Amino acid sequence: MINKKIADSLGIRERQVEQTAQLFFEGATIPFVARYRKERTGNLDEVQLLEIQQKLEYFDTLQKRKTTILASIAEQEKLTPELERAINETYDATALEDLYAPYKPKRKTRATVAREKGLEPLALLIYSQKNDNIQQEITATVKRLNLPTEECVQGAQDIIAELISERIDVKNALRKEFAQNAQIATKVIKTKKDEATNYEQYFEFSELIRKSPSHRILAMMRGHNEGFLRLSIAIDEAIAVKIINRLVLKGYNDCANFVKIAIEDAYKRLLSAQLETEFYNELKQRADTEAIRVFAENLRQLLLLPPLGQKRILALDPGFRTGCKVVCLSEQGDLLHNETIYPHAPQNETAKARAKILQLVQSYKIQAIAIGNGTASRETENFIKYTKFTTDVQVFVVSEAGASVYSASKVAREEFPSYDVTVRGAISIGRRLIDPLAELVKIEPKAIGVGQYQHDVNQTELQRSLDFTVESCVNKVGVELNTASKHLLAYVAGIGSSLAENIVNYRKENGAFSSRADLLKIPKLGKKTFEQCAGFLRIRGAKNPLDNSAIHPERYALVQTMARDLKVTIADLLSNAELRKSIPIEKYETDEIGAETLHDILQELEKPGRDPRAELQQFSFAEGLKTLDDVQVGAVYPGIVNNITNFGAFVDIGIKQSGLVHISQICKEFISNPADVLSLNQHVQVKVLEVDKEKKRLQLTMK
């Protein structure tokens, strides 16, 4: 039943869910299943596999909750066969809690106090609305319990109000009204008005919750949590009472009049607050999910930015008073040299700094220069631009986001214990140019700066999503086994941090790996882990050329059979396109090896170990543009997209402040998502609409 529910919710076949669940049970990872078990899953992609995994976990948690609830009700001796069946047949957490609500142990409430006084029989009689002589019953109860009439009536109504608040039909009808017509509203707290300028648009604000986008929900909730705004989620009270009346009232006698009063109390005192909390949590979860999705997609694009590749790099971390930190790196990103130059004010040692750069470029055979995009970046770029090199040296401006976090981290201290944070930061900038993915995996994803509200969303879900994104990117690109850091290796399917360290230690002690099979010599790396990770690891120059491809070792025999059938070697297959075209794919199809896997194998034979990332393109900002004061309204500037949100994109035009291109200003046609037409690091042309120097804001358009 669970597999069918998952399949129906995702629009796939039940068999696909069954096979995927079995693979997960066997210890398979998502990257491995997506790449190497396409026949088993019906070619499900990583996103679908993750959704199946999350839903399996949801239902597992739900089953554990059912067990707890059934035990609790049984202990109260109130578990009927009908109730047990209803609980077991429920697959929704909210519906399950609704079933449990009447039996859930409660703290002392007005209803429990009334029950302790013996007023439940009277309450049930009134609630049934069948008695036309209820006044006699009230009088009898007063005498029997020796309580004032008013106290008896009030106590009975308190019990009725609680019973109404626990009715599933009532809650579901109100939920429907909330979903359709509830308003989220905010008001500024008067005593905090002067401090709440960031939330000015929410000082007196309301809109339908179904129309409120995630970024606005999170902004309002942040203002509420920081104590600047009062926030409410509500429907029209009169409509709510009418809905309950329609479901609860049965007649027009005295009992019904008492129940009417209880209905109003049930909504005002119990249901409105309960549903407000429920919808607040739902809105928060919805907003979190969307914010996390946007963050993860931005992170994916950043991690998959084009690498320059193995070039000798001179990296500059710009600065004014403290100078520009300079490092020279080898093709593998190893530190060769570092020092500080002072080309800018106040020292203005421009000539001396230029001579030093020229000498370093010549001495270390530098092929490209990486300049961090922080303070003094434009000045440093211009300084380099007007330096006449005798060889062809490419110049790139590189994002510094997260570099300071890395430079002060334990990872950086382990890599460069003898150098201070400024040198480590410059090294990180240079290495990002060589291979952004290999360097950025060392930084906490939340510190990279491509999300919004990352500190407001569910941190566990955020971490999980970002980890999945990093793992997905690492395995998509593949990892060079003989040069990868332990931080990069840790994200390879099935490995993790402990085994990554074992691999690096083995490499130090025994030298470079000559084949993938050598991985089985690693302590604690067994056959299952080898199965999961081997296809994502590359060995450049290996004796078996397939070890430098995405072809899994379990398929080596198949490739050898293909070569043998054509009476050639594997090397011949790799070098001869005509031979590859002559392979009759259908001949090698089996239940286990289908057309998708065979197609992947042929693609790898065409370009073994190919990097799926695009080629890096050079970019130059407009000259003479250094600060917000230089920006002219109406002018058009080249820029780089450095963040994408649901409401627009932020573009770096070469000054400290990135400008916002609102979603309505991205293109002439209507779009619902900026990510549909823009990508991170995309080179664009933008026109300046507005410059707000006081708030240091820049409004741009791409129209």
How would you briefly describe this protein structure?
By secondary structure, the protein is α/β, with parallel strands linked by helices. Helix content is 49%, strand content 12%.
Set out the fold topology:
Elements lengths: L1 H9 L3 H12 L4 H7 L1 H4 L4 H30 L5 H8 L4 H8 L9 H7 L3 H9 L5 H12 L3 H17 L2 H14 L1 E6 L15 E5 L5 H12 L3 E6 L2 H12 L5 H50 L9 E5 L6 E6 L5 E7 L8 H14 L4 E5 L4 H9 L8 E5 L4 H5 L2 H6 L5 H14 L1 H5 L18 H19 L1 E2 L5 H4 L6 H15 L16 H7 L3 E2 L17 H10 L4 H6 L1 H5 L13 H12 L29 E10 L2 E5 L6 E4 L20 E10 L4 E5 L2
Parallel strand pairs: 4-7, 7-8, 9-10, 13-15
Antiparallel strand pairs: 1-2, 1-3, 4-5, 5-6, 11-12, 11-14, 12-13, 14-15
Task: Provide a descriptive summary of the structure in words.
This protein is an alpha/beta fold and 703 residues long. 49% of the residues lie in helices and 12% in strands. It contains 29 helices and 15 strands. It has a five-stranded mixed sheet with strand order 6-5-4-7-8, with helices on both faces. The chain has a five-stranded mixed barrel with strand order 11-12-13-15-14. Helix 2 crosses helix 5 and helix 14 packs across helix 15 (254-303). The longest helix has 50 residues, at 254-303. The chain is globular, with a radius of gyration of 33 Å. The model has no long low-confidence stretch (mean pLDDT 94).
